[in-house]
Design a protein that fits this description.
The chain has 327 residues and is an alpha+beta fold. 37% of the residues lie in helices and 11% in strands. The protein has 13 helices and 6 strands. The chain has a 6-stranded antiparallel sheet. The chain starts with a strand and ends in a 19-residue tail after the last helix.
Length: 327
């Protein structure tokens, strides 16, 4: 992928958010570029896992573009990505704009190899064709991927999205640029917050302590992001409060691991067993049996199934939402 400087780039959805008022002048000028892609790419399918609900204040999917606020080793950055006939048009604001611009090829999965998936089922073959623009990118931001994964542990999606939004609005900071986004909380902000300080966000002591632990310098998450996927998964699972499910959820987003299967998920085994074997219910063991022919690409198969709209039959009541913040 090449990055070509551009003179102008219209920001058609700038009004989607209000401009933060506390940005330094030097952070206002964006870095602008055109990133030429070598294969089919759909930004929404590829970057969809970065957004945790439509109310996520750090990510916005506009009509023509996708905005994302992130923390880089050089400081905060906000990016706007949009597809054009020439490639991906990018604008990046903030002190970390150069680092973030250089990271965009990894973010959109330019080094991903979707052709490595060899379908063993007709449904997978058809989904591979339908969603040819799906790629597995990597953010290289393990903390930003782990925080929502921890929040999503053993709760409904509605609860998790509500808690994540509340946490960011309380502990995040205004992101650079014109979109009015909020940065994910820093490691320090997580670490210095006592466990009971997370209670108003709907987080009980167990998840709160895990978030504080992840924010500690001893977590060494920056180092873990440089490890091979298998080693990174093993390291993450060694952190108290991080099990196989949470590690896999984070590894897919932060490391672009196309094989990280979320063992312990409430819905994924049923989806896999229904789609690949016509079985309305399944457990982790059966799911892994069906996914074994795809080893190395198992998470890609699951993502394709999720995008497909296939749903296993539902029996009985759903898990009821709770309100921990009111306890």
């Amino acid at each position: 992928m090449t990055v070509t400087p551009m003179l102008t780039l219209a920001v058609d959805d700038r009004a989607a958010g209000s401009r933060p008022t506390d940005q330094p002048a030097e952070a206002e000028a964006p870095l602008i570029g055109l990133l030429r892609v070598s294969n089919a790419l759909d930004l929404r399918w590829t970057l969809g896992p970065l957004r945790h609900g439509s109310g996520d204040p750090s990510v916005r999917f506009g009509a023509a573009s996708i905005w994302r606020a992130t923390r880089t080793p050089d400081g905060p950055a906000t990016m706007r990505l949009a597809m054009s006939t020439e490639g991906v048009e990018a604008m990046v604001w903030g002190p970390g704009r150069e680092w973030a611009m250089d990271a965009i090829p990894r973010l959109i999965g330019e080094q991903d190899r979707p052709a490595d998936l060899r379908p063993a089922h007709a449904v997978v073959r058809e989904l591979q064709r339908r969603f040819a623009g799906l790629r597995f990118g990597r953010t290289d931001a393990l903390l930003e991927a782990l925080v929502p994964a921890v929040i999503e542990q053993k709760v409904t999606g509605t609860e998790a999205r509500r808690s994540y939004r509340a946490l960011l609005l309380a502990k995040g900071e205004a992101a650079p640029g014109p979109a009015g986004l909020v940065l994910p909380p820093s490691a320090e902000a997580l670490h210095v917050t006592p466990y009971y300080g997370f209670h108003p966000f709907g987080l009980e002591q167990r998840r709160a302590l895990t978030l504080r632990r992840l924010g500690a310098p001893a977590a060494h998450l920056d180092k873990a992001a440089t490890l091979p996927p298998a080693d990174a998964l093993a390291y993450l699972r060694s952190i108290p409060g991080i099990g196989p499910w949470t590690a896999a959820e984070a590894a897919r987003v932060a490391l672009g691991d196309a094989d990280a299967v979320s063992v312990g998920d409430l819905h994924v085994p049923n989806l896999v067993c229904w789609a690949l074997a016509g079985e309305p219910r399944g457990d982790d063991q059966r799911m892994l049996e069906l996914l074994e022919p795809y080893r190395g690409q198992r998470a890609r198969v699951v993502r394709l199934l999720e995008l497909s709209g296939i749903r296993a039959p539902r029996y009985g009541p759903r898990l009821a939402p709770r309100s921990i913040a009111r306890i």
